[in-house]
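Teaching assistant here, posting this on the class forum so everyone can see the example we discussed in section. The complex has two components, and the goal was to see what a joint structure prediction looks like when all of them are supplied at once.
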Amino acid sequence: MSTQNTIPRHDSALVPNGPGAAAILAAGIGSFAVAVLTVAADKSALVKNLLAIYKPTGALSGVTTASIVVWLAAWAILEWRWQKKNVSLRSINIVAFALLGLSLLLTFPPLGDLL
Amino acid sequence: MEITTRSLWTLIHGMGFGALYLLAGSGAIAFLYQRFSADAPAAPSPGKDHLLGIYLAVMAALAWLTVLTGTYIIYPWYRAAPPKGTTSQWHLIGMEWKEHVAWLVPIAITAAAVVVIRYARDLKYHPQLRVALHGFIVLSLFAAGIAGFFGAMLDKNAPVEGGQTVQLVQGEKQ
């Protein structure tokens, strides 16, 4: 994702759009992690066992915990990189919503089973 | 009037946190539209921006409470004894989708809340951020709606029966 420091910005805009973009893209990445780990746990017994960190809940505990870690790590890294920058928010929105849309689809069991 | 502890938890999870989230979601969309529509006042009071941030933060808290109670308190009961019969297909597809798709909700709404709190009045200069906010709230409502729908459709008899009985109201003895 390329950052553009030269994007014209409104004079009154005090906060650059980078931190907002970081939150949006990280949410897309975190959601996609939920979907990818869900499919991985469904396909592989090894992954399923590894992700069962809380036995009563099974693999769901690991899928969600790992996804939260991925989400927060992605957010921290993107925030660090973009906190004082203006970035191309339109393309970041497209990527984030594509990831969220894919997450909705891949968590639907009949579609996840096709992979 | 009596209720089992398991039934009480499913009520708190679904009719408490989950239903409140769904109700609050439509309010958030109306709030955002009113705040940033073309005919909105150019300089609304700062309190309105703070209120929107607080509103979304409360929604995020509700979303986290819903998925955490659902995943760590209620879901183990469903795993223990999936009921056989006409609703078994609901469990195969519905429960599996519900348990995962619900986790997209707190992620999306937390991001939305943080953006609103961080940008506050500055948000009016960032139209693409507002587009993302609307999208995140709508998508989180859609995912919460899927989870809520399957929660309501699943046969709860087997998993939620049991536990201690809680007496809510005691009638007078004749």
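For the discussion questions: Residues 23-112 of chain A form one domain. Chain A touches chain B at residues 9-10, 12-15, 17, 19-20, 23-24, 26-27, 30-31, 34-35, 38, 54, 56-58, 60-61, 63-64, 67-68, 71, 89-90, 93, 96-97, 100, 103-104, 107-110 (CB under 8 Å). Think about how each of these relates to the inputs above.
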